[in-house]
Amino acid sequence: MKSLDLNALSWFCEMVEAGSLTSAAQKLGVSVPTLSRNLAQMEDRVGQQLLFRSAKRFQLTTAGERYYNALSAGFSHLHEQISLLSDDGERLRGSIRVSCPESMAIDYLHGWVVDFLKQHPEVDISLKFAINDQQFIDDQLDLSLVVLPPTQPGLVQKKIFDTEMWVAAAPEYLEKVGHPQRPQDLPEYDLLTSDPMKGWAFKTPDGRYELTPTPRYVISSIRGVVDAAIKGLGIVYGPRFYMHQPVEDGRLVRVLPEFETEMRHVYMVYADKKLMPTRVRAFKDFLLERLVHIGDVKS
Q1: In angstroms, rounded to a whole number, what is the distance separating the alpha carbons of residues 165 and 257?
Q2: How far apart are CA 225 and CA 246, in angstroms?
Q3: Which of 113, 177, 184, 251 counts the highest number of beta carbons within 10 A?
Q4: How would DSSP label each residue in the chain?
Q5: pLDDT score of 89
Q6: Could you tell me if 242 and 126 are in contact, meaning their C-beta atoms sit under 8 angstroms apart?
Q7: Separation between Cα atoms, residue 232 and residue 96, nearest integer Å
Q8: Model confidence over 63-103: pLDDT tens digits?
Q9: Assigned domain for 1 exists
Q10: Is 214 exposed, middle or buried (0-12, 13-18, 19+ CB in 10 A)?
C-alpha cells in the first residue's frame, strides 16, 4: 500500500462524522471537489473503496468502517490533547457515548451524568440501555457498564464491584402463602425476574442448588421486578444494593437468608485506555468514585 499522509486520514474521519462531503467541506474550510479528490486519492492508495457516495447515499463500506474505527479514536485523542495545551485546555469538550442497564441508569447514572454535565458545559453525553457489551463496537460506545461478563475481544474489562444476591418478598405476600423453608420449595411460589434465563443459585447442606425460574412476571428491569415484589406479586431474587432499602424499611422481607447465594458482578468496559480521550477519562474517573460505593452497601 502506498503511504498516506495524516491530513488525508483526518479528512476521511471528518467526512464520516459530518455525514456528507458538503458538511465536511464547510467544517474544514475547503471545497467539495477538493475533499472528493482527497477521498478518491486515499481510496486509490489503500486499494479499496471506503465510502458509498451519491446524491442520496453516503455510507461506509466494510473496509471504510475498519479504517474509521481504527483512526477516529486516535484523532479524537490528538485533537483533545492539542486543546489541552491551549489557554482554555482545562475545559473538557466533545461527545461521550455510554451504556448501562436501565435500572442502573435511572437510579444512579442519570443523576451522576447530570452532575458531570453541569460541571462541563461543553460536553454532551448519550446514555443507552444495555446489560452486556454486545453492541459496544456497533454503537461506537466510549464506556459501558455491564452486569453480564464481557465477551467482546479487544476491550478493556474492569470489574467494579461484587454484589450478593438476596431473595425477598412483601410481608403481605408471605403472610398469605407462607415462607419457603428451603430453596427447593421456591418453584411452588410466584417468582419474579428480570432475566428468566439466569438461574437462582444457592449453597445448601446437600451442595449447590440452582433453580431456573418459571416466572409469573418478567420485566427487563431489576428496578421494575423489585417494585413488583414490593407490591405483593411474588418472590424476587436480586442484587443486594437494589434490595437493602426496601428490606430495611419493611416493604420487603428477606426469604431464605440462611442459605448463601452467589455473587454477581458489575464491569466497566472501554476500548483503549492509552487512546482514551481526556473527556472520557475524566468521566470514567468520575463514575468510578461513585460506583465503588454501591457495592459497599451494608446489610
Answers
A1: 10
A2: 13
A3: 113
A4: -----HHHHHHHHHHHHHSSHHHHHHHHTS-HHHHHHHHHHHHHHHTS--EEESSS-EEE-HHHHHHHHHHHHHHHHHHHHHHHTSTTTTS-EEEEEEEE-HHHIIIIIHHHHHHHHHH-TEEEEEEEE-SSSTTTTTTT-SEEEESS----TT-EEEEEEEEEEEEEE-HHHHHHH---SSGGGGGGS-EEES-TTS-EEEEETTEEEEE----SEE-S-HHHHHHHHHTTS-EEEEEHHHHHHHHHTTSSEESSTTSEE-EEEEEEEES-TTT--HHHHHHHHHHHHHHTTGGG---
A5: 47
A6: no
A7: 40
A8: 888 888 777 766 665 655 555 544 444 578 889 999 998 88
A9: no
A10: exposed
Please, what is the average pLDDT of the chain? 85
Q: Which of 30-44, 67-81, 153-167, 263-277 has the lowest mean pLDDT?
A: 67-81
Same domain, 122 and 80: no
**Digit-coded pLDDT (tens) for 242-293:** 899 999 999 999 999 999 998 888 899 998 766 688 889 999 999 998 887 7
What is the extent of the structural domain holding 220? 162-264
In a domain, 54, yes or no: yes
Q: Supply 207's cell numbers.
A: 451442595
Q: How far is CA 128 from CA 72, 96, 100, 105, 298, in A?
A: 21, 11, 7, 8, 29
CATH number at residue 272: 3.40.190.10
Number of domains in the chain: 3
133 contact partners, CB below 8 Å, separation of at least 6 = 144, 146, 150, 151, 152, 155, 269
Distance CA 298, CA 219 (A): 27
pTM value? 0.61
Between helix 6-18 and helix 21-28 the angle, nearest 10°, is: 120
